[in-house]
Amino acid sequence: MNLWQPVSPAIWQGRDDRAEASNALRLFQTVRQASSLQPSGDGIALLGFCCDAGVKRNQGRPGAAEAPDVLRAALANMASHAEHDRLADLGNIRVEGDALEAAQLALSEAVTACQQAGMRTLVLGGGHETAWPHGKGVLDAFPGERVVIVNLDAHLDLRAAPHATSGTPFRQLARCCDEQGRAFSYACLGVSQAANTRALWDEAERLQVRLVEDLDFQRDAPGVTQAIIGEADRIYLTIDLDVLPAAEMPAVSAPAALGVPARELLGVIEPLCRSGKLQAVDLVEFNPRYDRDGQGARLAARLAWQIAHWWA
User: How many Å apart are CA 268 and CA 254, to the nearest integer?
Assistant: First the structure.
């Protein structure tokens, strides 16, 4: 079953300003588009995970499967600076029907191959079921190293369920770490007590998850971030866009009544990017069906652009 597909060249389009100067470039002019899922070089592998099967299983609002190409189109016309020419678009992995586990395996194997080839991975989800294969791909690429998972999210996503959903990825990663005989190092920053049951809070305590609530983010998140950088060998950052206030990010399955503003999130994202330890990032849960005039797509794309900018 071939679940990989290249991205249509029509997605990467924008304004051509080269008549002004040779370096008046935009991302659509500098991104490298791959004809196969083969990692090369030491750049940033851009992968799409066209999936909302986990969201459907978790009783959420479907639509995130459409996100990767919408976010690419929003990225395409943004300015390209020197570091952005390291972006290589390695295409999309899609889900056939409800065959979520097969698609997750394909993404996990692609991530491991990219990481072992010396590339970092920037994955555009998809629902938060993206985090299980992305995180496992990083863990498998670096056996014996301390990989810390940082989740910017209103939700803990530690649910117990008979099969994978968008609410189970970090419980799955905890089980994977246990099977591999390694520590499960997980921090959830921006989490909302109002959005997580007592059972989930208890599970987080059992797994010794580091928590920073949305109300305390500005005060506590920078210190926790610096501690993570100090102790980690590698860092995997996953950004659930529902951590943002609904007024900033309406286009998600579960909009946040309060949330953490984008400028505060960037204060945590920047030191992680500049640490030299960040191996992988994904942006998940963007749902174009609920966007308002492209507002959510532009914000999510700006976050991806900023990460690539600082990651260099």
Answer: 23
